[in-house]
Amino acid sequence: MNKRIIVTASFFGALAVVLGAFGAHSLKGHLDVQSLQVWQKGVEYQFYHVFALLYLSTFARYKNKLINLAFIFFTLGIILFSGSLYAIIIGKIAEKQGLTTFLGPITPIGGLALILGWLCLFFAAIKDK
Asked: What are the DSSP calls for 61-124, one per residue?
């Protein structure tokens, strides 16, 4: 197992629990239903990719560059995709509409990073003997 990947997954997992609870308990009275759903979508995707990172850690004994790339893409994807969704919602609460305009285009870049992580894992599996 790869300590770096497990530490990263553990950090993002704990953070997802905190942010999920924060959204469910602290943001409920401050946001409309659609904004709460956006927050929740960030938490969901963060959790999904925590599990993907944990799965990657089981391949750490292989010196496969694609596994390392998948780790990088999943990590960037969590930060850019989920992070931008969180920031957009916090920006709504703080009434910082410029933040939404700035961060809106970052969300799909994060989504692309997540897709690239999955593709790296796919090609690593195909390449494995």
From this structure: TS--HHHHHHHHHHHHHIIIIIHHHHHHHHHHHTT-HHHHHHHTTHHHHHHHHHHHHHHHHHHH
